[in-house]
Prior knowledge:
Layout: H1 5-11, E1 16-21, H2 26-33, E2 39-43, H3 54-62, E3 67-71, H4 77-85, E4 90-93, H5 99-109, H6 122-128, H7 132-139, E5 141-146, H8 149-158, E6 166-169, H9 171-177, H10 191-204, E7 208-213, H11 216-225, E8 229-232, H12 235-252
This protein binds 3-hydroxypyruvic acid and magnesium ion.
3-hydroxypyruvic acid (3PY) binds next to helix 9.
Amino acid sequence: xxxxxxxxxxxxxxxxxxxxxxxxxxxxxxxxxxxxxxxxxxxxxxxxxxxxxxxxxxxxxxxxxxxxxxxxxxxxxxxxxxxxxxxxxxxxxxxxxxxxxxxxxxxxxxxxxxxxxxxxxxxxxxxxxxxxxxxxxxxxxxxxxxxxxxxxxxxxxxxxxxxxxxxxxxxxxxxxxxxxxxxxxxxxxxxxxxxxxxxxxxxxxxxxxxxxxxxxxxxxxxxxxxxxxxxxxxxxxxxxxxxxxxxxxxxxxxx
Length: 255
Ligand code: 3PY
Ligand code: MG
């Protein structure tokens, strides 16, 4: 089976950098994939497209060195089965709050005897290789999103669920559900305690830790705490930031 480079990077204690695709464009997916990211995640939860767009986006990422990942829209066995069959090499599942929900996620992502993933690997087989079935359980990365106070409280137990590789932290929802405005910088809120706590907990249990970051300085700080993978913003955010910067730079000339 094609090696999951993200697992290799983690075993070498090398940071992985992840691109985030919110737009329904295989061209943008391909551009991100060729930009040097180790993985590109198709965001089916908040991206502006439905599941029917996912195959073309994964095909585009598969034509690049980046690993194709998907954030599912929820913790749904049939949707997650389909995303893996479409060739996702990593699954990030939003809003996991309890051990039971983490176990359901493992059931949706792992073949028996570990879980209840149904057989029909389709594009997974094309991208992964003919021995996909034999190695899929060990090779595909499965991360539970911790982004609520209950998830935060149960994180230590969630991390010990067999078959789960680790967690992916959603700082925006975590802030919102703690009554903190997500527009505030994490350093000025209680997130400055919660984020390092979660990342260090993953280290303690030798588990994978990913985190969405608003910018590169946050990504750098999260890596300094030991995060395995950082996502410094999404495609649309980068486009808008760069466009606004160019307009503002031009206007400064007053010509
Ligand atoms: C969050 O920050 O809540 C996320 O889900 C990041 O995409
Ligand atoms: Mg979220």
